[in-house]
Amino acid sequence: MSAQILDGKATAAAIKAELAERIAVLAGKGVVPGLGTLLVGDDPGSQWYVAGKHRDCAEVGLASIREDLPGDATQEDIEAAVRRLNDDPACTGYIVQLPLPKGIDTNRVLELIDPAKDADGLHPTNLGRLVLRVNEEVTSPLPCTPRGIIELIERHGISLAGKEVVVVGRGVTVGRSIGLLLTRREVNATVTLTHTGTTDLPELVRRADVVVAAAGVRGIITRDMVKPGAVVIDVGVSREVDPATGKSRVVGDAAPDVAEVAGWISPNPGGVGPMTRAMLLANVVDAAERASA
Ligand SMILES: Nc1nc2c(c(=O)[nH]1)N[C@@H](CN(C=O)c1ccc(C(=O)N[C@@H](CCC(=O)O)C(=O)O)cc1)CN2
């Protein structure tokens, strides 16, 4: 038996259609939210992601603002661009595309973002609100990839309440922040966060009802590590040359034969990536609705 597919492309398309309707309602009130991006350098992956965000904005009816800086931009250049976005009234939410070039103090840059315009939900104030407000409604942006993963699972009719979730990888955009969302009272999952210091990863993963693989290590989750019927969310991205075409392709953290034992699996590409993009738009629209209420 092969796992059922958690289709991120189709789910993101449905979410974008819902957002377009909400944006039209805001437009009727004279409110036009705008998503800003700050891209530093010419990494092809980051350029592709940023271009996709601007295409998404055009598709749903959001304004979009771009700040592009060369790879040799200084800390001061980047901080000046952040201040411009903070001050630009057309930009109601924005992201600093990560990673920033080596030598740049990323945390200093992220802390300069106006928390009210933090479309990524990664500003310390917004992460802090998630830590403090476990039982209350959160009226600040949520980290996009974790939010996208939970939406993807729940929109396929799978409840996370009481489930054992094992997260692999402790990066800030996924691993460290997803536990804050999964353990909120309205989700109610139990979370184990694993990382390079974990002594017996296979043993922990075998217990999981849901595996979130965000290590960025090709094929780290193998078939023998997965409980039959488990939900596998493949987040990590590695690139390799496809021997058949000679072109670069994305490969995930789950080995291909994991799909033979899992109950549900998110394809990679086509799973979490499109959901991350959709949630970025959702954060901007949520903030604009709160501001206009
Ligand atoms: N400030 C941020 N930087 C980065 C984040 C983030 O959430 N905030 N996440 C990633 C990049 N990212 C969004 O920025 C992102 C990654 C992947 C995709 C996507 O749609 N991927 C496609 C495949 C693309 C390919 O072939 O290369 C898919 O999964 O189908 C969208 C956004 C790091 N930086």
UniProtKB/TrEMBL annotation:
Belongs to the tetrahydrofolate dehydrogenase/cyclohydrolase family. Its EC number is 1.5.1.5, 3.5.4.9. The keyword Hydrolase applies. Keywords: Amino-acid biosynthesis, Histidine biosynthesis, Hydrolase, Methionine biosynthesis, Multifunctional enzyme, NADP, One-carbon metabolism, Oxidoreductase, Purine biosynthesis. InterPro entries: Aminoacid_DH-like_N_sf, NAD(P)-bd_dom_sf, THF_DH/CycHdrlase, THF_DH/CycHdrlase_cat_dom, THF_DH/CycHdrlase_NAD-bd_dom. NADP(+) binds at residues 169-171, 237. It comes from the Bacteria. It catalyses: (6R)-5,10-methylene-5,6,7,8-tetrahydrofolate + NADP(+) = (6R)-5,10-methenyltetrahydrofolate + NADPH; (6R)-5,10-methenyltetrahydrofolate + H2O = (6R)-10-formyltetrahydrofolate + H(+). Catalyzes the oxidation of 5,10-methylenetetrahydrofolate to 5,10-methenyltetrahydrofolate and then the hydrolysis of 5,10-methenyltetrahydrofolate to 10-formyltetrahydrofolate. This is Bifunctional protein FolD. It comes from Cellulosimicrobium composti. Pfam families: THF_DHG_CYH (PF00763), THF_DHG_CYH_C (PF02882). Residues 143-291 form the Tetrahydrofolate dehydrogenase/cyclohydrolase NAD(P)-binding domain.
